[in-house]
Amino acid sequence: MGVYYPKGVCSQKIQVEVDSSGKIEEINVVGGCSGNLGGICALLKGADARETIQKLRGTDCRGRGTSCPDQIAIALEQELLKTE
């Protein structure tokens, strides 16, 4: 399982595992808005990582230029690089 430390957001750590076909097997976000992020993580399990990146990348939170969903996309990109 890969670990990513988000930048510019409330969440403190993202743990993600992607299988060899590019599906998200496990994802967990530590910190941030636990209810929202727990729901997002539940929805992402089993999803295609590449499609998820396209949907989440660039999401902004309060003018920060990033957000927890954007940071999840970055974490997924890094994890995909390990599987390719």
Mind sketching the topology for me?
Elements: E1 2-4, E2 11-18, E3 24-31, H1 34-44, H2 49-56, H3 68-83
Antiparallel strand pairs: 1-2, 2-3
Explained architecture:
With 84 residues, this protein is α+β, with helices and mostly antiparallel strands. The protein has one domain: Sufe protein. Chain: A (Alpha-Beta Complex). The protein is 42% helix and 23% strand. The protein is built from three helices and three strands. Strands 1-2-3 form a three-stranded antiparallel β-sheet, covered by helices on one side. The relative contact order is 0.25. The mean pLDDT is 96.
CATH class category label: Alpha Beta
How much helix, percentage-wise, in residues? 40-55%
- Radius of gyration from CA coordinates: 12 Å
- Output mean pLDDT: 96
Structural category is: alpha+beta
Provide the succession of SSEs: EEEHHH
Q: Briefly note the CATH topology name.
A: Sufe protein. Chain: A
Q: Which parts are unreliable, with pLDDT below 50 for 5 consecutive residues or more?
A: none
Extended strand count: 3
User: What best-fitting shape do the alpha-carbon axes yield?
Assistant: globular
What's the number of helices?
A: 3
- Bin the strand percentage: 15-25%
